[in-house]
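Encode chain A's predicted structure.
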Amino acid sequence: MTDIAPLAASAREKFGDPGVHAIVRNGRTVHAVSLGQWIGAEEVPELLCHTGVAGWSPSALQPTRADVTCVRCLRSLNSDIDTYSSQLPLFSRDSLESFTT
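Encoded structure for chain A:
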């Protein structure tokens, strides 16, 4: 069996500094990162919103210092999500009003 501790430590090191967030592969959405249990007692960075990462590998998450744009992550951080408009709404406010009247 291979020792995964160095792999987990390397992943933690990439995201260890405050203000380091993540993008998934070549994505555009910036996610907040927290530590989560991986295998055994090893912890590795994971997306705060718990969005699934298909085919997870240590290289799937790329570190960035860009501001978080994921609305789910921002909600978890209790941020004011109205100030972030880079994620498009599913429905406009006008279309929602037509459903309630």
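The longest strand covers residues 33-37.
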